[in-house]
Amino acid sequence: MAGDPEIAAAFVRRFQSRVFGVAIGVVGDAQLAEDIAQQTFEQAYRHAQVYDPRRGSVRTWLSAIAHNQAIDALRAHKATPVAPADLEDMVETVTDTPERYALTAEAAVELRRAVAALPRDQARAVVMAGIYGMTAQQVADFEKVPLGTAKTRIRAATGKLRASLATRQVDHD
Amino acid sequence: MTDDRGLSCAQLQEISAEIALGVLPADEQAAAMAHLERCPACGARVHELALTADALLELVPDSEPPTGFEGRVLERLGSTPARRATHRERWRRVALATAAAAAGLALGGGGWVLGSLSGRPVLAAPITSPAQPHVLTAQLTGGGHPMGQAFAYTGTSPWMYLSVDADGHSGTVQCRLQRADGSTVVLGAFTLDGDGYGHWGGPYPAGAAPVTGVRLLAANGSPLATATFVASQALPEHRQQPAVW
After folding, report:
1. What keywords would UniProt list here (chain B) (predicted)?
2. Which structural domain range is residue A145 located in?
3. How far apart are CA A28 and CA A129, in angstroms?
4. Where among A32, A49, A82 does a domain terminate?
5. Maximum separation of any 2 CA atoms in chain A, in Å
6. Which of A77, A162, B232, B233 could be cross-linked to B52 through a Cys-Cys bond (beta carbons 3.0 to 4.6 Å apart)?
7. pLDDT tens per residue across span A87-123
């Protein structure tokens, strides 16, 4: 095993674009995203024992930490988790044509197609909940629909995406 | 099934996506977790949905951070040589976890775990897929008490990882690997802190005989804890290239 400075530097270098990507994708502000990304590596360092190989790769683990940090930051900094225009941009991003992501894992390509195939209101709901951390009530308020409708959209969308991945093993980094 | 608070499987499934996405309101979480602790079937479903939630995050594109980010992170973690030395073991753990991920680990067993990295629950569900055949796990025990966990990866570039929580013990301990042919090999030594906590990980030499267990010895050579891997799981190691991140 290499010495500490080399391991730490290599580890950060290996995953920094993933961690920063999740952070800026959720909060949209570069300065806040950097702070979140730094916190993510600090959390990973402090809580390495929490890493659970059953949940996926280190990349997935770090993404989850960055996501949690970003959601917390959103809740602390913004009254509304996402602006309508930013939501539209994110829905476009996650349903964009796979050709733009030539190096993306096959499972992610498949999931991208599955999100694109969702009814638009379901795609918006799963992006709001799954990426921006919005509760069903927040989704309902944002979309001006009853709470039950928002819950149904989240549940239906997530179930369809799960089915699209059911026969595929999620890529492990 | 229905738990004491009356949450049925059907009711749990209504909110399973919200649980998996981490957006279930706090006032609903307790009842949901109580049900999940009692119901493996619902737990497995939420686990699958949680993997879907993880995969969804993969659709958010990577983005290069601003120039100098790496240095600022290392500075934040403590970049002076003296401080870095104290962090070596933790980074070893992270690095080992990375190697584990590269090897595509899937550890079996375990129940629901509710941890928290930053205020929101992190769910670790029971495994629903077969465990990775090259991974051995066993509990470390000493004097009849649980003292931690041992993991051995017997596939490409074999390695061992120990997580020790041995109340009442501190100082240097030695880790010794045991094989089915009776041979043993010292893997290394590491330190338990004042609370008896410590961890160690690293590669071990490939051998013809399967790994059967691991022993922890105190500085004076007395046995501290042992872990015995399930014999039917034991496999000879492959002699291949080291895993990469």
Report:
1. Membrane, Transcription, Transcription regulation, Transmembrane, Transmembrane helix
2. 83-172
3. 16
4. A82
5. 56
6. A162
7. 999 998 888 755 555 445 666 788 888 999 999 999 9
Residue predicted with more confidence, A101 or A17: A17
Q: Which two tokens stand for residue A77?
A: 């900094």
SS3 A75: helix
Question: Which of A162, A164, A170, A173 should one mutate to test binding to chain B, selecting the residue with the greatest count of B CBs within 10 A?
Answer: A162
Token pair for B175: 């880790």
Shortest alpha-carbon distance between residue B90 and chain A (Å): 7
Q: Per-residue pLDDT for B6 more than 90?
A: no
**B193 touching A (Cβ < 8 Å):** no
User: Which H/E stretch holds residue A100?
Assistant: none
How many structural domains comprise chain B? 2
Put simply, whether B91 touches A (Cβ < 8 Å) is yes
Q: Name the DSSP letter for residue B190.
A: E
Count how many pairs of residues, chain A against chain B, have C-beta atoms within 8 Å.
Answer: 248
pLDDT per position as a tens digit, B61-114 = 999 999 999 999 988 877 434 344 444 555 555 555 544 444 443 332 222 222
Stretch 36-55 of chain A: residues touching chain B, C-beta under 8 Å: 37-39, 41-55
> What is the average per-residue pLDDT within B27-40?
87
A77 and A138 part of one domain: no
Angle formed by the axes of helices B81-102 and A58-77, nearest 10°: 120
For residue B190, what are the domain limits? 135-228
Nearest CA in chain A to B126: A54
Interface of A with B in 69-88 (CB under 8 A): 69, 71-72
